[in-house]
């Protein structure tokens, strides 16, 4: 078992130990002036797919398709942590859709040399293994 998998198991146990659990809620603060959508990224929360891909490009594609199905032509995308990485990719791939971008607690990109060395030291093959939950993917 890799160090990352052991760490994830420990964090999962710790979160349960302190009494944290998932909660769903309604957002009303902006509802009078804006249409607000709070989607789960695929493999987060209750969102699943029969595809195993979980790259930022895949996540951005899913978000763009969902927004278009909802009739959204232009939007402000807000991303936190890994969602910020997906937000940057979404703005890159769909500039006609993303009018404004708000990102917090995230990096824009990881260089290939840093990425490969970091992944090797952590015992994972890609950043998704490190940053994404593995619940629901059978990993």
From TrEMBL:
Q: Which organism encodes this protein?
A: Hibiscus syriacus (Rose of Sharon)
Name of the protein: AB hydrolase-1 domain-containing protein
Q: Cross-referenced InterPro entries, in alphabetical order?
A: AB_hydrolase_1 (IPR000073), AB_hydrolase_fold (IPR029058), Meta-cleavage_hydrolase (IPR052370)
Q: Can you tell which superkingdom this protein's organism belongs to? A: Eukaryota
Q: Which residues form the signal peptide?
A: 1-19
Pfam families noted in UniProt: Abhydrolase_1
Keyword set, alphabetical order? Signal
Q: What is the lineage of its organism?
A: Eukaryota, Viridiplantae, Streptophyta, Embryophyta, Tracheophyta
Give start-end ranges for the coiled-coil region(s). none
List the Gene3D superfamilies: alpha/beta hydrolase (3.40.50.1820)
Q: Where is the AB hydrolase-1 domain?
A: 30-115
């Amino acid at each position: 078992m890799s160090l990352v998998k052991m760490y994830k198991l420990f964090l999962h146990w710790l979160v349960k130990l302190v009494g944290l659990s998932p909660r769903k809620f309604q957002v009303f603060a902006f509802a009078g002036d804006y249409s607000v959508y709070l989607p789960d990224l695929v493999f987060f929360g209750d969102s699943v797919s029969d595809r195993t891909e979980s790259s930022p490009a895949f996540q951005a594609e899913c978000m763009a398709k969902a927004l278009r199905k909802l009739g959204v032509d232009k939007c402000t995308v807000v991303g936190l942590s890994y969602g910020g990485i997906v937000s940057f990719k979404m703005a890159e791939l769909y500039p006609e859709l993303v009018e404004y971008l708000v990102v917090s607690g995230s990096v824009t990109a990881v260089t290939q040399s840093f990425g490969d060395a970091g992944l090797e030291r952590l015992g994972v093959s890609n950043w998704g293994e490190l940053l994404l939950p593995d619940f629901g993917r059978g990993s």
